[in-house]
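Task card 7
Instruction: Convert sequence to structure tokens.
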Amino acid sequence: MDPVRNPYAPGAGQRPPELAGRDRELAQFDVVLERVARGRPERSLVLTGLRGVGKTVLLNALRSQAIQRLWGTGKVEARPDQSLRRPVASALHMAVREVAPRHRDPERVDAFLGVLKAFALRDPAPPKGAARSWQPGIDVPAARGRADSGDIEIDLVELLSDAAAVARDVGVGIALFVDEMQDVPPDDVSALCAACHELSQTGAPLIVVGAGLPHLPAVLSASKSYSERLFRYLRIDRLDRQAADLALVLPAKEEGVEFDQGALDELYAATDGYPYFVQAYGKAAWDLAPVSPVTAQDVRVAAPEAEEELAVGFFGSRYERATPAEREYMRAMADLAVERHAGADGPVPTSAVAEALGRKPSSLSPARDALLKKGLVYSGERGSIAFTVPHFGRYLRAHG
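Output:
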């Protein structure tokens, strides 16, 4: 079939043509926005899940909902070696610029921008390669005595409170979206939790929407014990059969193409409903099917191409970041998963990994910690370890 008309879109954070299976999360966020708009107390939101389940896509969809309500919005992608000051300053600058044209008092907006500039310029450690003379692009003088103490917790509370006040003047809110939230440095995590706590207590119209790996709740809880009550946690998982079928069938229908039932059976068996895989296999099946309807045989012929694409772009790029010692650790995890989870990539005890490698657990700590830092594995509970990427164990066993 015509590859130019292929509707499927496998890509990092790239919205699929049909955002299937996320109606519940979208509806819940609508309620959050409406409650905040009415001055009702509401918790900030945290999305958690494995790689490839569509957290970033959903985060962007939630941002679109906020924009439709004329909220100010900004987005941050956290990095483990970067303070939140610069990215949060840039995100809030964008959010306030969206709100400012409707504000009746330009001087009040300028006063906030002065606070924002002061906050940004207190960044103690610019990212590697960035100029120390960096300026945040704000054409007002930096304020003094507000959000400029150098203590990120004090400053962030003051900054977000002031941003919320500007939004309240206009009768809207501000939403700050934080992707890869598990990579926020520890001090900044603590500051973000403290700011959300203060905002929720005062009913300020500003919410934080974070997205991260499954261990993100543990990261937040380790920072502030009250974070368990501070956020509403939504676990984003693979699609059920009905949603996965819709993600394939509806975009194809728009192009006058159909999938027969056998093709849908084969596709769900291959993808397990993981949204990234659904798009990758759907794209390959479309490209290699000669005519509509797409059949089970078409899917079987296309499967090697989809697997090769995933092996290079989804799995391989992550595998290449690991050292030989880290790869050895992951292969042991993959082999143990076969025994314990019938081939699925579930969690395995770290003690069992050490036993399988004939090593003391303490000697493997550097490899495990490096894999945790690289986001290749996560520890959902003490003494266990699991892959952050679905089907990664299967990939390692096939390419070992």
